[in-house]
Amino acid sequence: MSLLSVRDLTVKFAMRDQTVTALNQISFDVRRGERLGIVGESGAGKSITGFALMNLLSQPGYIDSGHVMFGGEDIVRFSDAQMRRIRGNRMAMIFQDPMVTLNPVLTIGQQMVETLRAHRKLSRAEAEQISILKLREVYIPSPEERLEQYPHELSGGMRQRIVIAIALLLDPELIIADEPTTALDVTIQADIMDLLLELCQSNKVGLILITHDLGVVSQMTERTLVMYAGRIIEAGPTRQIINDPQHPYTQGLINALPQQTLPGHRLKQIPGNMPSPAALPAGCPFHPRCDFAVDICRRVRPEIMRFAEVEIACHEVSRLHGIPYKEESA
């Protein structure tokens, strides 16, 4: 049984003059202890997916339809009180910028102790001891002293380690990490990702890693979802997607990696930009940027289809696998 099962999840934003679809019927599963990557350019819907799973969407965004089964319960329709039992306790999220995540006017100790006591019946002394243990787990030196410090007194890498420690405080079953190293120096990023991988493996915690960095995904995850314009367009084992990408968009992401270009040569890039969710093209949303687009791509949105271990939404890939074009309305 999957720890998390997402089915046909659709998220919309009610704007002044129209309703915009940010996520369009996405479906995927995460098993207990599994590490799943979600990749794509800015605007693909990666972060919205994370916020929707945590039920943290704020107005004008809302979940329009679909199911998010977590531990056998559909949390989409949970009340705020019911979600407070889940958030931070069984499902935790690590955000992009630790300075936004941490409260600047509270000490590290106050924030960790309050988190623990909100979900567990603990004395302040007991909560402090657990906080110290968790800080040691993420290799924070002199953890007793750090409890008395404020976020601004710590380096960016130290703050992000503390955010990870807070996420692990209540031994969650699933962690959603949304670009957890974006605000950090390159030299610190690898250390943070190694730490997160080690902690997830040792604690048997499921991980959803949201990132645009395919290099990180290849090292951290077992399965990968590739998103484009609010849809999943390729999904499967990470090694297979990295080594043999099928969808033209995934191929473009791989080819755009710096290591794919010889020294002294211009970096390859996918032409054009991600379309606005308010003005998606007809048919396949990637067709204006695709070198392999044919007439049907401009008229009919491709359905996601399974080929062995990989799922792909592409007319041309389906044809290459012996499935004729389907003339259906978009």
From TrEMBL:
A GO BP annotation: transmembrane transport
Origin superkingdom: Bacteria
Alphabetical UniProt keywords: ATP-binding, Cell membrane, Membrane, Nucleotide-binding, Transport
Locations listed in the record: Cell inner membrane
Pfam annotation, one family: oligo_HPY
SUPFAM superfamilies: P-loop containing nucleoside triphosphate hydrolases
Main location: membrane
Similarity comment text for this entry: Belongs to the ABC transporter superfamily.
NCBIfam families: oligo_HPY
UniProt-recorded name of the protein: ABC transporter ATP-binding protein
Organism: Antarcticimicrobium sediminis
